[in-house]
Amino acid sequence: MTSNIGRVILLLTTVLLGGCFVSNAPTFSTWKNHQELYQVSQKLKVGDIIITNKDWRNPLSWFGHSAIMISKYKVGEYPQLCTGYYETDVILWLSKKEKFTALRYKAFNKKFKATFLKNISKTKNEQYKIVEKTNNNAFYCSQYIWYLYWKTAKDLGYDLDIDKDGGYFVTPYDLSNSKYFDKVLFTP
User: Fold this and answer.
1) Spatial separation of the C-alpha atoms in residues 180 and 2, rounded to whole Å
2) How many domains is the chain partitioned into structurally?
3) Are the C-beta atoms of residues 27 and 100 closer than 8 Å to each other?
4) Looking at residue 11, what is its pLDDT?
5) CATH number at residue 43
6) Is 125 contained in some domain?
7) Are 74 and 88 in contact (CB under 8 A)?
């Protein structure tokens, strides 16, 4: 019981003090037309992480939201309570976002990609829940992405913690500031 209270306090502290996503990275904002949206979507690759800014209308998005490119045309995510894993067409998903940052893992090669895709198929059927980041029985948005990268590296024989501060929980902010990613630029 005491450890659960401690975890709740730790989560609230993380959200209130360190979790808010304020990007210093290049962001893309406000779509001018469908063609522009299509061009941006074509620059995203499997494994790219898409992080949106915080949304004050939704308490679960007060620290931003993250999703992952699972194919050239699809985004995978754990978006909210009672939903579980969800896949959406990338153009449809991006069309509902005002601002986002995209991150690309510097060491994402063919071998990593193959193992990464296998791990996606193994993690699609869990529930949404705020859990410790190494837990694979439930996921929340940024923890799901962290887990995919952590598990893939582990399967390939090395350690990888893409969480900037290495804490108990991982937020979109932790991913955005990780040294393992480059920001994807969408210049014409």
Assistant:
1) 35
2) 1
3) yes
4) 47
5) 3.90.1720.10
6) yes
7) yes
Q: Which of 148, 31, 143 is nearest to 91 (CA)?
A: 31
- Residue 62 CB partners (closer than 8 Å, separation 6+): 15, 19, 20, 54, 55, 56
Task: Give pLDDT tens digits for 57-86.
Answer: 666 556 678 999 999 999 999 988 778 899
Global pTM reads: 0.80
Q: Is residue 148 part of a domain?
A: yes
**Complete DSSP assignment for the chain:** -HHHHHHHHHHHHIIIII------S--EES-S-HHHHHHHHHT--TT-EEEEPP-TTSGGGTT-EEEEE-SSSEEEE--STTT-SEEEEHHHHHHT-SEEEEEEETT--HHHHHHHHHHHHHSTTPEE----TT--SEE-HHHHHHHHHHHHHHHTT------TT--SS--HHHHHT-TTEEEPP---
Within a domain: residue 188? no
The residue segments making up the domain with residue 122 are: 2-183
